[in-house]
Amino acid sequence: MYKYDEYDQQMVDTRVAEFRDQVRRRIAGDLTEDQFKPLRLQNGLYLQLHAYMLRVAVPYGTLNSTQMTLLGDIADKYDRGYGHFTTRQNIQYNWIKLEDTPDILAELATVEMHAIQTSGNCIRNISSDQFAGAAEDEILDPRPYAELLRQWSSFHPEFLVLPRKFKIAVIASETDRAAMRLHDIGIKMVKNDAGEIGAQFYAGGGMGRTPMIAPLIREFVPIHQLITYAEACLRVYNRYGRRDNKYKARIKILVHELGRDEYVRQVEEEFAHLLTQPIEPPLAELERIKAHFVDPAFDAAASDELDLTDPDFRLWVERNTTPHKQPGYIIATVSLKPVGGIPGDATADQIRLMAKLAKDHSFDELRVTHAQNIVFPHVRKSDLYTVWKALDEAGLGTANLDTVGDIIACPGLDYCSLANARSIPVAQKISERFGSARKQAEIGELKLKISGCINACGHHHAGHIGILGVDKKGLENYQLLFGGSEGADTSLARIIGPGFTEDGVVDAIEKATQVYLANKQGEERFLDTYRRIGMEPFKEAIYG
Amino acid sequence: MKILTGNDLKTGAVIWWTGVGWSLNVNDSTDVGEHGAAIIAREEGAQNVFAAYVVDGVKTDEGVRPSHIKERIRALGPTVRPDLTLKPSDPEAVNWVI
Asked: Which Pfam families match (chain B) (predicted)?
């Protein structure tokens, strides 16, 4: 994985020193909260419902064991013994003290981490495929390109005060595991007929109060023009994105209002202009970055056999592992969704354990997924049972990946100052209702996503079943949506009817799964059956 | 009643105006009537609190209760982590919030 050079390190260290001074001035009373707020937000420090919250960036979700260990240590030393992995592949701490923040950032800098651009109207953490570099279906590892974009977007002077926040995802396989078309810019690395590497660009996607699927805006951007084209996309947005209304300020609104073709015309015009300016980094820089992402030293003689005699292990392997491009190895996903647990939360001990297992059994690498789980990307098959046993003993062995128990949930009203309703208790009740392995196996793949407000941090628009918490005259109420998908078949979920109480929405989901099971044909997933038979049978069962 | 809440500058902790100072416990809140804005201006100026605002509340036999669920959760702590609330030894404490 990428290692900072002296410039990266100096930038991060300088920012820590700068923020330390800003915190000192704030506490001394030399800065008002109005003056300080944009400064703290630029360093990932929010004020949430109960305390300050610090969001730490995990670039494209990739971590090594030293970094992961420190994340666990920070949870113990500065927080309340746990962290929350987010849908942006980051980690958040919910109980941070302002006076501790400079020390936390200084400690993070020692392991090449920071919280820069995890808030504010700038280009946020670049997200990617959690199986990058390991998936057997990828055409190449997308992370060097994500890293190039990270370097381009970090402290980019033109794009630090955009009309609104800006999220980019980079993938390199047909299977979209990063919700790429629900980003402000989605980039799919491709090869053309001549075998040349390039980038397919999508722009104007997003969730939030106005969900939109990004249209394709260019089939092929040559790799030596990647940054120039991205710059052109951002420039047009920065110039014409609406700053008068924050609810209409995202690029999706601009692309929608201009129309895809007019946006593309303007981007191409800007692109042509920028090609006359030498802004593209030399390909040598990309090659330097690529050298950090070479495959680990796989053992070509590693056995491809797995002993599945332990039935619990077999279940976990069937649910939580994915084929690896290298024979003898496998990708293992650790579910942070134990039955009745809080989605995405992990204790400091669990975080350190996952770090140790990655060091011992996954070439020192981990990934954070946008579904709030952790991945060991390169596990030797002969080590997998050992890994699972250790995980299971620590409460991390739940076999429910992509089932109804693997719920994405935002922090909701339990933690978030923007939320209208709690998300976590709903997730817990659903997880308990569908907790049995038999039930989950019967239902199969069912992606369920819960947001506590219209901002959609819980990706409810992209859920096969989505739940949106709203405030109805001071009471929590939950709208149910069906038919969303974040994969290669991206679609937006639709509200099925009037909302429910907390218990009512759990009952409604159970009825929906019964409709699915009664109508399912062959190997259809819930989503497939819904798409085939439509909403009416579900509405009839749920509303009577 | 009108009660006043904000956050402690250094720790970020949720605090409530008692009439003479700030408390972590909502039950110590006092009715500020129409004086909320003036108290906020004075207390924020003195760095005793930040992000302060007035909320509606009611005085019950069990104590002061903010009227809106968001403020009640703010007063107690996350309902999904009773161990981190103001009354960690009382798992039933979340019941007055919901």
From this structure: DUF2849 (PF11011)
